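Figure S7 source data.
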Amino acid sequence: MNHVLNSDRPDKVALVEGDNTFTYAHIESRIEQFASGVLAGRRDLEEARVAFLIPAGVDYVTALHGVWRAGGIAIPLNVAAAESEWEHCLTSAGVTQVIADAQTLGSIEGLCGRLSIPIGTVSDSLADSVSPLPVLSPTRRAMIVFTSGTTSKPKGAVTTHGNIAAQIETLITAWEWREDDVIPLFLPLHHVHGIINVLSCALWAGATVHAMPKLDLPALCAQVAADTFSVFMAVPTIYVKLIDHLETLEEGEMERICEGFANMRLNVSGSAACPVEVFEEWRDLTGQMLLERYGMTEIGMALSNPYRGERRPGYVGQVLPDVAVRLVDEEGGIVTEEGTPGEIRIQSPTVFLEYWGNAEATEASFAEGWFCTGDIAVIEDGSYRIMGRSSVDIIKSGGYKLSALEIENKLLAHPQIAEVAVVGIADRTWGEAVAAVVALKGDGDMTLKDLRGWCDGKLSSYKVPKQLRVVGALPRNAMGKVVKPSLKPLFE
Ligand code: MLC
Ligand code: AMP
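Tokens for the predicted malonyl-coenzyme A complex:
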């Protein structure tokens, strides 16, 4: 199965990385060289797990596709994670090889040494001659993406080649991807928004991706003003940051950038709820009606406002092609009427296979063959509206899904902290911001600055609390469980 990389026009530019451009033919031959290199004489990697820590660019595409072609399972990791987070991913997935870019290599080399996992760069693995590559069936495992949830440690969601192809195809159809599309890629490449919706859809369609190692608003806006792009995909936080950035510019420059957005065929928002005000401000600035869609690591995308037709602010639209959605109420009954809320459950070829090495969690996440998302929605006038989540322990900050329990477990190791509860509080920029309530041992005090300093290197920086309240004791119910909803008012 050779999905994802378009082969219709080999001379077309697939990827732009800084001043360099790479054609489809060039990337294809690099992928084959890399696949041959990692095979190192074997016929098939037979689902060996190969992790990589590489920012957006030709090396990332080479590693992702190269591992796939060689029959391995690709595990894209966060280049900026803390060492203990990398260690959890490497050990829980039984990673046998790590590929890093020159910059990240130094940070993870020691850990790989300690775990006896060979590490190298993409260039190290490019074979001089190409060896025969295995033929892969759609049921073969292709990728593990680590996702936080209601458990304290992230779980590895395994998708097959068939799942990935289905996730791409549904979006190619629904959003009418085409060969002449050009899209910027600044989202992190260890989550499906960047990997599937942007990178993989574009490369499947034969379009061009401008890979950027990180979000750089002035540089991005300059390209937008130059009418470089036809499609733009981001999380709501990025639209908020763009709106704030545009408002700092002198009028002429702002107008040129807004015109660049206006000239695109599609602006998409997803990964977190897009506030109605953001939809309206973006429409007023650029004339673009944001297309909001809903998805999840385990299922790809499931609901979307229409490409052609009315896009309703505050709603995530209708069911995508080849996806089946049902809402299930608290008693386990299937919701049949508009206006009645229920948990979103999904059945589709896009739905993942399993959590790696965790049959219990996999089983618990399905009911009668339907994947249980934990998100609550309602249908109103034919459109789904997301009402919230069934768990208070999941926080969505800037599009990242964070586990309150994971952060609490880390903070409990602080020598001064006796008790801790982490909650997400409403925030204009981040959607939800991580906030910690702590009870201290002894009489000391703790400032937010102290706590953030202590967290440095122990947690990815986006998980570190942005607010802190110190209390005498945490409020608990009769079962001894912290009453989290009663903590949020402390931050008002
Ligand atoms: C960065 N920071 C965050 C943060 N991102 N804090 C909370 N939440 C976040 N998401 C903090 C950093 O820790 C740092 O703090 C400071 O902001 C500046 O960091 P930065 O890296 O320079 O920030 P920036 O580039 O502006 O990053 C913001 C962002 C990024 C929105 C571009 O968060 C991002 O790319 N988010 C997208 C995540 C994503 O792709 N999710 C999709 C999951 S898949 P300090 O203290 O060090 O200064 C999914 C399924 C679906 O959800 O439906 O798509
Ligand atoms: P992740 O596990 O990182 O893939 O995040 C998936 C979660 O993001 C979903 O379960 C939802 O809670 C949330 N999400 C994604 N898109 C939207 C959206 N458009 N509106 C509200 N929540 C969303």
